[in-house]
Specification:
heterodimer; A: 356 residues; alpha/beta; five-stranded antiparallel β-sheet; 14 helices; 22% strand; B: 492 residues; alpha+beta; MetI-like fold; four-stranded antiparallel β-sheet; 11 strands; elongated
């Protein structure tokens, strides 16, 4: 437990659906979009933990919950604060010595302290930088908020360092520019610099390369790996791209409709997927071998992802699953371990390993 | 500090954008002129201005309903206002039957073919002890040689006082004077007509009209001599001493009222319209800008709070705006103003009424802006960079002031500009409808013209309307220029 950076337990986020007047008067129960519906995982100190799934599966919501941008509906997320932030948090809020529950209502000072420690990189570098602020003032904002650097010159120094750390050289040339004057890849570097300038220990990276040109994806990923090595960071890396996940992740959690269906070391999950959904995902990855270009592969699941407002009973995948059994329609499968560190939630494997 | 510098930055950007357009340039020049005049007028404005504008004895010397002096170029016969300070005139001194007589011969040159509006003699003289029984008698010698005797003849006993205080604006002796000067016409003269229109008989040529069977007067230009005999019974006093007391007196003057006055003419009370219009500048601008500023400030704050925080407070503000929007403004204004006008009788009534009108205007004019600001705030709030700012720990106040407000500045400026003429026009409309707060606003001058003027008195009707239009135009032009700043699609 000592090297666990973040332990998420039964994390839930339900968005209420606005009801019409007639629905309210007729006493219909409020409906919810269950974006994240009870997920549990651990992030080990210094690892890159990936959340993978197709769009709408709740992975971004999970990331935003951990970055404390939205309030959770329920669950627990115990986070081990780093040493320099620990002093700012009162004793009463700490459990097990170093752990803070991120999902509780925390006082303003604690909230601010945690912002120093947990940062987020957004998917869209075109939207995440205020078009009316120069790069310099974008990077200066977190410093001003957290009173880092007492003078303008000192802050300038920190900004220059942050910019050259993300390989925007020479930094003097970038501070005066506005976001529209630089390329998408450079913008994402600025966004990374903004996240890193506060010296966090956990970074939620929400599809940081999916909006970039393929040609610069690798550079940005390499930059993130370099920064991780340099600063002993932990990443929660959110992506829909298994190729990227394979390249960067230590462990992978595959999400489907707000639930984790498979979790394990990335080579095991990708090379030996157990869950039908994971198998489908893996087989959908385009193959780089040109000799296979004429082969049309069958994706083993059918149909579209259902709405998170009307989640199917039992196993969420059963309407799409080619192996669906009777039990799948009634009962949700538990998470069971199929090999060390590799867990899957599917009745197919439950029967194999735990005959009952 | 940085917020201020940001504000200044966006202000100088707005200014540059405005000045790059013709309408913006015109508006800018007009605005500077307006502000300069307003500041100048506000400095010069006497503190009790409302009192003497509305009641004031200040205006009795002015001709009433008089066109401006430059109207003579438009074909008006114009007699200028002529005033003689008799203290500086050396009188002839004589002694007749024990009385000291000062004889002032004042020559008045009437050049236009019209009658002056009136004449007035004022005296405020403290005479030495031993002077009794003062008498002032005024004769007029017309250019044709006819002498009207004693058109004014007054006595001051001076038994208990040594102050001669005269204010004679009617030649009381005109009837007998005319009767005795024109003996051959006596049968045809109308006493009533002489009494009501004395100026016609003093400054006119009298002739009998066979067709009308009555005496007619025609203006008689030429040199008139006013012979003013000021006589005293003096006991042990040298005439020179009396003369010295006259020279040192507060006032001793003869005024012949003209038919034209000043730069902008006068209204039915003889009030100088130039003055009223001049002091109307700061009031108009104050009404417009104060209402616009306050309404804009409230609208911005309400819209920001509503859009940013949402929830119950949002609902409350938006429903309030809806309710306000469905109440008609003008009837409410009339109701409020009229009830104050009828019930409040304090000294500061004009201020109280104006404040009430301000308040109602402000209360009813922030809603539209609040709705716009709310919707803009909602859309900016959901921008990713706002979320990014939250992620680095920015407070709500910081997000509002650094990320949301700067984008709203052009809209706020445009709203400010457009609501200014609105307030001015509403106030003018109220005045014209008869809601009087007492300040000489342009609307007020127009309202009085509506009640007491005729259409021929263009100098009374046109200038206030023109000034209201100019001020509105200034702000509308400014708004047009700003519109291009706000809406990039309109930019070339």
């Amino acid at each position: 437990m000592s090297n666990v950076k973040l332990e998420v337990n039964d994390l839930r986020k339900y968005f209420p659906i606005r009801r019409g007047l007639i629905e309210v008067l007729s006493g219909k129960p409020p409906k919810y979009v269950r974006a994240v519906d009870g997920i549990s995982f651990e992030v080990i100190e210094g690892e890159i933990f990936c959340l993978v799934g197709e769009s709408g599966c709740g992975k971004t919501t999970a990331g935003r919950l951990i970055a404390r941008l939205i309030e959770a509906t329920g669950g627990k997320a115990l986070y081990r604060v780093s040493r320099n932030v620990k002093e700012m948090i009162p004793e009463g809020l700490l459990t097990n010595g170093d752990y803070v529950n991120l999902l509780e209502k925390l006082p303003g000072s604690v909230d601010k302290a945690l912002r120093l420690d947990i940062q987020i990189i957004f998917q869209d570098p075109y939207g995440s930088l205020n078009p009316r602020m120069t790069i310099g003032s974008v990077l200066e904002e977190p410093l001003i908020i957290h009173s880092i650097g007492s003078t303008k010159e000192e802050r300038q120094e920190i900004i220059y360092r942050a910019l050259s750390e993300v390989k925007l050289n020479p930094p003097e040339e970038f501070v005066e520019r506005y976001p529209h004057m630089i390329s998408g890849g450079q913008r994402q570097r600025v966004a990374i610099a903004r996240a890193m300038i506060l010296n966090p220990s956990l970074v939620v990276a929400d599809e940081p390369v999916s909006m970039l040109d393929v040609s610069i994806r690798a550079e940005i990923l390499q930059l993130m790996l370099d920064l991780k090595a340099l600063r002993n960071l932990s990443y929660i890396f959110i992506t829909h791209d298994l190729a990227v996940a394979n390249y960067i992740c230590g462990r992978i959690a595959v999400m489907y409709l707000g639930k984790i269906v498979e979790l394990g070391p990335s080579d095991k999950v990708i090379n030996n997927p157990k869950h039908p959904y994971t198998i489908a995902l893996v087989s959908a990855v385009p193959e780089p071998d040109p000799s296979n270009r004429t082969k049309i592969r069958e994706v083993p699941i059918k149909g579209e992802i259902p709405s998170a407002a009307a989640i199917p009973s039992g196993c969420r995948l059963h309407p799409r699953c080619p192996y669906a059994m009777d039990i799948c329609k009634v009962k949700e499968p538990p998470m069971i371990e199929v090999e060390p560190g590799h867990q899957v939630a599917c009745w197919l494997h439950t029967k194999e390993s735990t005959p009952s | 500090m940085s917020v201020l510098s940001k504000m200044y930055e966006s202000w100088s950007w707005i200014r540059k954008e405005i000045l790059s357009q013709v309408s913006g340039k015109v508006a800018f020049v007009l605005l500077i002129v307006l502000i300069a005049i307003s500041v100048y007028a506000a400095i010069l404005m006497p503190p009790d201005y409302t009192k003497y504008w509305d009641v004031g004895s200040k205006w009795v010397d002015n001709p009433y309903n008089a066109p401006p002096e430059w109207a003579s170029y438009l074909g008006y016969t114009c007699i200028p206002q002529t005033s003689y300070d008799l203290r500086t005139v050396k009188p002839g001194i004589s002694e007749v039957t024990g009385r000291v007589v000062f004889t002032y011969n004042i020559t008045y040159d009437l050049s236009a073919r019209d009658y002056p509006q009136g004449l007035r003699i004022r005296a405020n003289i403290v005479v030495p002890q031993g002077v009794r029984n003062a008498r002032m008698r005024v004769d007029v010698i017309k250019p044709d040689g006819v002498r009207l005797p004693a058109i004014i003849d007054v006595y001051v006993d001076l038994a208990n006082t040594s102050l001669i205080d005269l204010n004679l604006d009617k030649p009381e002796g005109i009837v007998t004077a005319v009767m005795s000067a024109y003996r051959d016409l006596v049968r045809f003269l109308s006493v009533e007509d002489i009494y009501i229109f004395p100026m016609k008989y003093i400054f006119g040529n009298l002739s009998y009209s066979e067709t009308l069977k009555k005496v007619e007067t025609t203006p008689l230009p030429g040199k008139y001599v006013f012979v003013i005999d000021f006589s005293f019974r003096a006991f042990n006093i040298q005439p020179q001493d009396i003369l010295r007391s006259i020279e040192k007196s507060k006032e001793f003057s003869l005024l012949i009222k003209g038919t034209c006055y000043g730069l902008m003419g006068t209204d039915y009370k003889g009030r100088d319209l130039a003055e009223g219009l001049f002091y109307g500048f700061p009031i108009a601008l104050a009404i417009g800008l104060l209402v616009a500023l306050a309404a804009t400030a409230i609208g911005v704050v309400a819209g920001l709070v509503s859009g940013y925080y949402g929830g119950f407070i949002d609902e409350l503000i938006q429903r309030t705006v809806d309710v306000m929007g469905s109440i008609p403004l003008l009837p409410i204004l009339i109701l409020v103003a009229q009830s104050i006008a009828k019930t409040y009788m304090g000294e500061d009534k004009p201020i109280v009424m104006l404040t009430a009108i301000f308040a109602v205007l402000i209360i009813f004019s922030w809603g539209g802006l609040a709705i716009i600001i709310r919707s803009m705030t909602l859309s900016i709030k959901s921008e990713l960079y706002v979320e990014a700012a939250k992620a680095v720990g920015a407070s709500n106040l910081r997000i509002i002031s650094k990320h949301i407000l700067p984008q709203l500045v052009p809209y706020i400026a445009a709203s400010l500009v457009y609501s200014t003429p609105n307030a001015i026009l509403t106030e003018a409309g109220l005045s014209v409808l008869g809601i009087r707060h007492g300040f000489p606003t342009w609307g007020n001058i127009l309202a009085e013209a509506r009640q007491n003027g005729t259409i021929s008195q263009w100098w009374w009707i046109l200038p206030p309307g023109f000034l209201i239009a100019i001020v509105s135009l200034t702000f509308v032009l400014l708004g047009l220029a700003l519109e291009k700043v706000v809406e990039p699609k309109l930019r070339r």
